[in-house]
Amino acid sequence: MKLEGRLSKDNINPHLLDIEYAVRGPLLQRAEQIQRELDKGVKKPFTKVIYANVGDCHALGQKPITFIRQVLSLVSDPECIASSAAPEDVKQRARELLADCTSGSVGSYSPPAGLRIVRRRGAEYLRKRDGGVPADVDDILLGAGATDLIRAVFQLINCPVDGKPPAVMVPVPQYPVFSGLLAELGVRRVDYQLSEDAGWALDPRELRRSWLAHAGDHALRAIVIINPGNPTGQVLSRENIEEVVRFAYEHGLLILADEVYQENIVCKPFHSFKKVMHEMGEPYASMDLCSLLTLSKGWSAECGLRAALAELRVCRDVSAVLGRARAVAQCPPVLGQCALDCVLRPPAPSEPSYAQFSQERSQIHRTLCARAAAAHAAFNDIPGYSCNTIDGAMFAFPRVEIPARAQAAAASLGHTPDEFYCLRLLEATGICVVPGSGFGQAAGSFHFRTTILHERDTFHHMLREFRRFHLMFREEFADEE
Amino acid sequence: MKLEGRLSKDNINPHLLDIEYAVRGPLLQRAEQIQRELDKGVKKPFTKVIYANVGDCHALGQKPITFIRQVLSLVSDPECIASSAAPEDVKQRARELLADCTSGSVGSYSPPAGLRIVRRRGAEYLRKRDGGVPADVDDILLGAGATDLIRAVFQLINCPVDGKPPAVMVPVPQYPVFSGLLAELGVRRVDYQLSEDAGWALDPRELRRSWLAHAGDHALRAIVIINPGNPTGQVLSRENIEEVVRFAYEHGLLILADEVYQENIVCKPFHSFKKVMHEMGEPYASMDLCSLLTLSKGWSAECGLRAALAELRVCRDVSAVLGRARAVAQCPPVLGQCALDCVLRPPAPSEPSYAQFSQERSQIHRTLCARAAAAHAAFNDIPGYSCNTIDGAMFAFPRVEIPARAQAAAASLGHTPDEFYCLRLLEATGICVVPGSGFGQAAGSFHFRTTILHERDTFHHMLREFRRFHLMFREEFADEE
Question: Is B69 a domain residue?
């Protein structure tokens, strides 16, 4: 083939070159390499790599919810329903879901927006969550994971307005799916800094500063809020949400509320943007809003099944356009939709699966609360570490003091100080975390994100190792007297 | 919210307004409305709508392959493996797949490119398919359906080259996923016409004509070939493939070979682009190529599970960039990947599931062949209809003469003649097909696409109804003497 014809880094879409996704970045590659070395018998100060980079509960040993898996098993193989030993509510759920699949097969396409039964239950779930605030089934859109839905929303606003290129406001720190998708689509990311000193709250002055700094050159179309925070773990107060809503109203921004951790709550009450906006009344109640919920998080944590839900409150014309665009890809995975149905309408107390379901769900919640408290205490007990309260989600994002000599050593290797720190941590302890720079952090501050999902013994081993490593690291790079 | 802030048709991405997907277009909406009327007891000349718009075998009554569903059932609920009455090879397959899932759960994320075991089996499948031509597991990329993978490839070439906007050559008629995705991404579609008179072959003169007409203003980056054809049903000859390969080489085009119907072959032998390019030797053997295979088609026809495979032969730098970009969306649905594994490595003759599997697969193939022959014969027997041989895929795309008076009536209603014809067909018979204009067709010619997947009685009823309707229609719109 003529050389100039073949695809090369010089002639492909440069937006793709800009995508960075630190959660699966160079640290993970090195971790996987180390594990292969260990497998070959190479001696290291540890016997296996501990992956703490991805919020993937099942990968870290959390058992699936029995009810969900029993339902999946029966909808996959309906001939077994009659003879199955599964509880009657499992069989009933399988029959209901199959009745909504064309010709009773999960192998048929669902409608592009998702199975009607699952969308109905989504609306009902939101109504109950928000104490009766109405939710319209026509606003419910299912997707193959939250990324699929976020991309759809970003694509919707991906056009210049009055000659200005589009932009989206994104928190710092953020979950890099936002920066990654915006980079792919060539939409400008406009950062606003969360207030670490105020428990990672959103400061309206900072929102205004950021808006003013960019609105001259860009059409700011949307603001992303991650609540509960990822990687930061805060749950926003009602007052803070109201401030954000007023800001978004004032500047005509669609609110993209990433609320995927809404079922992973440790201590503070979760307020949905939808509910707060409804209670603020008009004009806020009718603003554009996209709120996300996913099967991959919460107590189900079924990452591999790829299902998520958006409540997309925009005018009907716009949702119709999006619906037609999404029909090209046919539909989200039907088995994922079936599992999502189990989350949206879990077993009720009167049903035979309830006892086991309730026990499993409580256990997952208890574990999260215990891990969050232990991580918070342990990190604040390490000299040079500080860590805000972990209100929700499934991560800790401690701040770490990195000595000037270590920063210089990092620079000499072409690493950021936090990358250097995390690499050294990996080499010394086998623990693979994600450097704060992968999420963004205030200049001069350094962090890392670790999941807090490991089983008890591994988790406490990790906490001890963080401490042991940090003391070693401090000593190695202590300022010369 | 300030009015200018809310999303409206006037301020969203205009590319999305350009997307048309006739397979789920206005005809389907009317069909669904008619079905609702029937459900309410409204009298019509028929008792139910017959959906022939989507190639969705399960929706039309095809039974799932037992082996696939048994495996899905066990990987979903691994606690049942020991006690299950399923054959030993089903259990073995479930254990193998779970061994490749992190911590043995299909609820864990897989690597972004897919489970290693499935990709390995993909490479092995391709090697066997092509009589030993090597296939590299690193070239195998799994996706959430073929659309996901096609979008990824289009996004890769979505950038100007030497100041010229990117473009992709697409056949006419085409499957509208191509036009839809190109419209979404704002990449120019450059049409080339298939030769209906030559059994829907690709005419190299037409390829050159199309290239010459557009290469001045556009950077032509890729050529889409659909083989077996959709909606057209042809299987390309080896010679024709060689001609296309030489053309693509000469103009430095990536070949995007949509070969998703490669297991739906009626009569002519299927030649993969990969094999032909390999056998042509250098420089053709090393050209850029993306070839597609999907779980949604073939004998599995598991549309709802959303899994597909691309063999993407581009330089490693480029596939690495794509890999990083795709990691943002984490991974394709793991249960879909498990089902795809069963297609890539079906039960072997020595295994206990083979007899039933083989019987089920043969039955599906026999049905396809019988339907293709019956449709071809019936359509060519209707005065004013003509239909090429259906070599593969799962559609008929007959050409229909539409009287001048009917064309005028269509124009007066703002419809194309074929839309008008299909709407009248729907109202008269309840059969929902897709007008040829949804795929593209030579000026002055009119077609529609119907699936040929219905069970025997419905199918023969459809064929009789097409005839009855057309004679009626001809009479209604006959030229006045």
Answer: no
